[in-house]
Amino acid sequence: MSEPSASGTIAFLGLGHMGGPMAVNLLKAGYTVLGYDPVPAAVEAARSHGIPLAETATEAVAGAAIVLTMLPSGRHVLDAYRGAEGQQGLLAAAPPNTLFLDCSTINVTEAQEAAEAAIAAGHRSVDAPVSGGVVGAEAATLTFMVGGEDDDVAVVRPILETMGKRVVHCGAHGLGQAAKVCNNMILGVSMIAVSEAFVLGEKLGLTHEALFDVAAHASGQCWALTTNCPVPGPVPTSPANRDYQPGFAGALMAKDLRLAVNALEHTGVAAEMGQLASRIYDSFVAQGGAGTDFSGIINTIREQSQA
Asked: 115: alpha, beta or left, given left = phi > 0 and alpha = psi -120 to 50?
């Protein structure tokens, strides 16, 4: 774990299921953190962990050297940066040359727009979406996919290494989001494929263990199988062993796949599997899977299969 730098206060905006544990890990490592979240439950959880809190977002950033945002969508990020509904934005409230570090998962184009707005306002910008879920946030084992200028990435790297175990500089502004959306498209498609294979195996008379023992050591091996196995038993730590409690919720997978579809449409890439996976997870969420681990898609596949 990296030692705290003398970079000043980190304003941490967004203290939910991911942001809260991330802020706690920064605080434990000795960083000066000032948090803000509009949701009372998140505020109480942060307070219980000793995170100093500001009354408003603009108060949090007023003396900050780094502004770290962990927000639900690109619209939230852009509205927070620029201000909305007559409220002052973070870009106007922050001291000159503040480094804005956005760890939200948003559209590539939105990340690029946010970076442009920050730079135009006299600040610096880095996008660093994460992979690893709530468990990774709590254990400080997240992977950060980073987009931004070399010098700015060097400034935030020790902070990211405090909250995670892997930091990959993917290129210019927005390319951290590009890496995230590509990775999670692979994940969504592979989880559907693994789930379909297990249901097919059940129909053919294979035990879960037999199929796992073959595929985990053959060409079907993937993270969706060997770490987040959608059936109970073969991987004791997978959500399937605790009634599909997330983990990585179905609603988040559906969101990330919609971001992938947006990127596919923007670039004109003919990716039929990504489009189909997005529709499948949208349906999964609409049928009650929003709060279930995304591996719970196997139950929908099983229910829809012929007897």
From this structure: alpha
- Return the structure tokens found at 264: 């596919």
Evaluate if residue 163 carries a pLDDT over 70: yes
CB 277 within 8 A of CB 285: no
Kindly tell me if the per-residue pLDDT of 5 is higher than 50: no
Question: Across the strands, what pairs with 101?
Answer: 68, 126
Dist. CA 298–CA 154, nearest whole Å:
42
- Per-residue pLDDT tens for 40-88? 999 999 999 999 999 999 999 999 999 999 999 999 999 999 998 888 8
**Which helix (DSSP H) or strand (DSSP E) does residue 142 occupy?**
strand 142-148
Instruction: Give the C-alpha separation, 279 to 246, whole Å.
Output: 20
The residue type found at 250 is G
Phi, psi for residue 88 in degrees, rounded to 5: -65, 140
Q: Rounded CA gap, 236 and 155, in Å?
A: 39
Cβ-count burial of 85 within 10 angstroms (0-12 exposed, 13-18 middle, 19+ buried)? exposed
Residues forming the active site: 180
Q: State which H helix or E strand residue 247 sits in.
A: none
As given in the structure block, the two tokens for residue 225 are 């199988």
**Half-sphere exposure of residue 241, counting CA atoms within 13 Å on the CB side?**
10
pLDDT, tens digit (0-9, with 9 covering 90-100), for 94-142: 999 999 999 999 999 999 999 999 999 999 999 999 998 888 999 999 9
Query: What pLDDT does 2 receive?
Result: 42
Task: Give the torsion sign (CA, 274, 248, 162, 16).
Answer: positive
For residues 78 and 232, give the distance between their C-alpha atoms in angstroms, rounded to a whole number: 41
Counts of helices then strands in the chain (DSSP H, E): 14, 8
Q: Cα(10)–Cα(34) distance, rounded to whole angstroms?
A: 6
What percent of the chain is predicted at pLDDT more than 90? Answer: 92
User: What residue has token string 């973070």?
Assistant: 90
